[in-house]
Write a structure and sequence with these properties.
With 383 residues, this protein is an alpha/beta fold. It has 2 domains: 11-152 and 304-381, Alpha/Beta hydrolase fold, catalytic domain (Rossmann fold, 3-Layer(aba) Sandwich); 171-291, no CATH class. It has helices spanning 58-63, 95-108, 122-133, 171-176, 185-189, 194-199, 204-215, 233-236, 251-256, 262-266, 273-286, 289-300, 304-307, 336-344, 361-364, 366-381, and strands spanning 13-21, 24-31, 40-44, 67-71, 116-120, 141-144, 182-184, 244-246, 319-324, 348-354. Helix 3 links the parallel strand 5 (116-120) and strand 6 (141-144). It starts with 12 loop residues before the first strand and ends with a helix. The relative contact order is 0.16.
C-alpha cells in the first residue's frame, strides 16, 4: 500500500506509515512536521470516514504551532494488520485496544504526552477512553458529535442484598412493533449483510457515500435536532432514518431516497466530487466491515465487564464538546449529553454547537472548529 497521492492533500500535509504499532502498520496524515519540539494534537476519525476527513483542519492547527497526527484507525483505509472476517475475533476492535493503538502511535512519534486528543463520531468514544484511562498522556480531550456518558457502573451494596435483576431491553422488539416498523442502525450494522449492502450498493459506493454524507449534513433540510425524552421506540422513531431505519430496508436504500440533485452536488463546497471520489475508492477497496466491527463490539455487550473496571471514574482532564447544530448525533442516545455535563466530564470547558454544520462538522465548518480548538487547547495545556 502506497502513501496518498499528494495531489489529494492540502499543502503542508504528508501521508506516511508507521510500523509495529500494536500489530498494525498505521497510515498517518501528518502536518506541522517541518520543525521539532512542537506540542502534539491527535485526531481520531469516525464512521465511515478516514484520516482524510481531517484534511481541512490539519493545516489550520499546524499553522498555530502544533504537530498534528491523524491516523486511519484500525479497520480503515491504508492501515493494515487487522482482519475484517465477520466470524473472526472482535477483541482487537474493542475500545481499550483502540486506545492502545492511539497510545502506541503517539509514543512512536516520541511523545510521552499530547496536548489534546480530538475524536469525532465513534472516534469521540476512543478519545474519551484515551482521556479516561491515560490522563497522564492525553492532557485534554475534545469530543465531537458524540457525547460521552461515562463508563458502565457496577452495582453497590449487593453482598447482603442481591442486586435487582435488570429487565431485558425490549427496544428492538418495540421498534419493530411500531405502525411503521423500524430498526436501530447500530444493530443493522452488526448484521452479516450490512457490509455487502454498502460495498456493493446498487447505486455504487460513490453515490451511496454522496447520499449518506448529504443526509447527515446541514445540507439536508430535515436535520432539526432536539432532545428526546427517553430510550423508547416512540421517541427513537423521531430520529431520521439514517439512525432509525425502516425495518427491512438497507442503508444503501435508506439514503438513496435522499440523494441530492446534480445542482446540489455541484454546489457542495465542503465535499466536492473529487474529494468524495477519494473516499469512494478507499471504501470500494477495503469494504466497510473494519468499521462495522466497532459497532459489533458495542451491540454484543461482550466487553462490558472490561469497561466496568473504570466504574465510577470520570474524565478529569480539561474537555470540550463540539458539534454541528444540525447534527442529530448530539441527541441520538437520550440522556448522554446531560450525563456528560453532570458527571462524566468534571472539567468541561464548553459545549459548542456550530450553525451550518451537521454531523461532519470538521469538514462542513473547519474554520470554526479550528477557532474553537485553538481557544481551548492552549488554555487547557497552560500555554
Amino acid at each position: 500500500m502506497n502513501p496518498i497521492d499528494a495531489t489529494y492533500l492540502p499543502a503542508g500535509i504528508r501521508s506516511r506509515f508507521v510500523d509495529d504499532i500494536n500489530g498494525l502498520r498505521i497510515h498517518v496524515l501528518e502536518a506541522g512536521f517541518e520543525s521539532t519540539g512542537r506540542p502534539c494534537i491527535l485526531l481520531l476519525h469516525g464512521f465511515p470516514e478516514l484520516a482524510y476527513s481531517w484534511r481541512k483542519l490539519m493545516p489550520l492547527l499546524a499553522a498555530a504551532g502544533y504537530h498534528v497526527l491523524a491516523p486511519d484507525q484500525r479497520g480503515y483505509g491504508r492501515t493494515t494488520g487487522w482482519s475484517a472476517d465477520y466470524d473472526g475475533d472482535l477483541g482487537p476492535f474493542r475500545l481499550l485496544n483502540l486506545v492502545r493503538d492511539a497510545l502506541g502511535l503517539v509514543s512512536a512519534f516520541g511523545y510521552r504526552a499530547v496536548d489534546a486528543v480530538v475524536g469525532h463520531d465513534y472516534g469521540s468514544s476512543v478519545a474519551a477512553w484515551c482521556a479516561l484511562v491515560r490522563p497522564d498522556v492525553f492532557c485534554s480531550v475534545a469530543l465531537m458529535s458524540a457525547p460521552f456518558s461515562g463508563p458502565p457502573s457496577l452495582p453497590l451494596g449487593t453482598a447482603d442484598r442481591p442486586a435487582i435483576a435488570k429487565l431485558p431491553d425490549t427496544i428492538h422488539h418495540d421498534l419493530a412493533a411500531l405502525p411503521r416498523p423500524r430498526e436501530h442502525y447500530q444493530w443493522y450494522y452488526a448484521k452479516r449483510q450490512a457490509n455487502g449492502d454498502m460495498q456493493h450498493a446498487p447505486q455504487g459506493v460513490h453515490d451511496f457515500l454522496r447520499a449518506y454524507y448529504h443526509h447527515k449534513s446541514a445540507d439536508w433540510a430535515g436535520n432539526g435536532p432536539h432532545r428526546l425524552q427517553g430510550w423508547t421506540a416512540t421517541e427513537l422513531a423521531k430520529l431520521p432514518t439514517y439512525y432509525v431505519m425502516d425495518l427491512g430496508q438497507t442503508m444503501a436504500a435508506t439514503v438513496a431516497a435522499e440523494m441530492p440533485s446534480a445542482e446540489a452536488i455541484a454546489s457542495c463546497a465542503w465535499l466536492p466530487d473529487r474529494e468524495l471520489a477519494f473516499y469512494a475508492a478507499e471504501f470500494a477497496r477495503t469494504g466497510f466491515q473494519g468499521g462495522l466491527q466497532w459497532y459489533r463490539c458495542n451491540t454484543t455487550g461482550a466487553f462490558a465487564a472490561e469497561y466496568e473496571t473504570w466504574s465510577g471514574r470520570s474524565i478529569d482532564v480539561p474537555s470540550v464538546f463540539i458539534s454541528g447544530r444540525q447534527d442529530w448525533g448530539i441527541y441520538q442516545r437520550p440522556g448522554a449529553i446531560e450525563a456528560m455535563q453532570s458527571a462524566a466530564c468534571t472539567d468541561l470547558r464548553g459545549i459548542h454547537l456550530i450553525d451550518g454544520a451537521g454531523h461532519w462538522v470538521q469538514q462542513e465548518q473547519p474554520d470554526e472548529v479550528a477557532r474553537l480548538l485553538l481557544a481551548f487547547v492552549p488554555q487547557a495545556a497552560g500555554r
